[in-house]
Amino acid sequence: MKDLFERLLILRSPKIGPASYNNLLRQFGSDAAILEHMNVSVELRDSVSREMDLANRLNVRFICDTDEVYPAHLKSIKNHPPILTARGNIETLRCESVAIVGTRHATGGGMNFVADIACAFAEHNVAVVSGMAMGTDAAAHRGALRAAGDMNTVAVLAGGVDYIWPVENERLYYEILERGVVVSDMPVGFVPKGTNFVQRNRIIAGIGEKLILSEADSNSGSMKTAEFAQEYGRKIYAIPSHPADSRAVGPNSLIRSGAAILCMGATDFFTEKNSVKKTEKTRESENPILDKIGTVPVSESVLAEIVGKSILEIKRELVMLELQGLIRKCDSGYVRA
Length: 337
Hints:
Blueprint: H1 2-11, H2 18-28, H3 31-36, H4 42-57, E1 60-64, H5 72-75, E2 83-88, E3 96-101, H6 108-123, E4 126-130, H7 136-146, E5 153-156, H8 170-179, E6 180-184, H9 196-207, E7 210-213, H10 221-231, E8 235-238, H11 249-257, E9 261-262, H12 279-285, H13 288-291, H14 300-307, H15 311-323, E10 327-330, E11 333-336
Parallel strand pairs: 3-4, 3-7, 4-5, 5-6, 7-8, 8-9
Antiparallel strand pairs: 1-2, 2-6, 10-11
Helix pairs in contact: 6-7, 7-8, 9-10, 14-15
């Protein structure tokens, strides 16, 4: 506990990140020796003590890069985070892993495709790593959670592991805690700023043994994640999209340049033609409304006509399906989530 407190004092000091910490460690040899040469304020000591107390109350673990459970691939990159905070099943960090990222403004078809791939990886005991953002990230996590078992997915947050962002993914956050793990390199209770998302993307690329890029425009954070993955020597796969869509620029450009391998689905990674278990899909197919919703938006009136129910009945059932995370509303109607 003393060693952890000392390391946190250093890392929570202003202007000290992984690179500067490593320089200090090389210079002085140990955390204790570093602190002897630092003027640590009483306020900082109190702040670190409060953070550790809060972590204890929330069942948050501090994972140092000397711990066995620290992600092996992340540890291999230069200036990796010396400490991660983790909430959930930390054993998930020992699993083989694949990073899956893409735009927040993904199409219904793109999200369904990502979810199916993520489910296939989880069925093969490969944890799916993403950033818990709306769109592609959420689809990747939810796809992994469709698979049976635990240790299915890793969510990397830009803020503290207790800070749920975006708030729309609150339910997803708690599902991940039950079936996987949430990690961050930020202090417990930290509210993220814009620059923190770049660091989050760096960690996603670092944990994943390979990276799959879905829909993403040229300036998206997902493209930055792909840059990090390329820097770390990870194999990159990209899912192609229609050239007329701006969300196709990212993956299509990587495929064209040879920086990424064309990804056509789960069969690119697994020999089985259909490795995804159908337990949840079977349950979903029992709902006649859900059966009629796919990647093309369907309006309430059309659904009412197809299934022979009133608009009021349709609205009630659509609300329930949305709350379950099975569908989402768009401008032209409803699509699968």
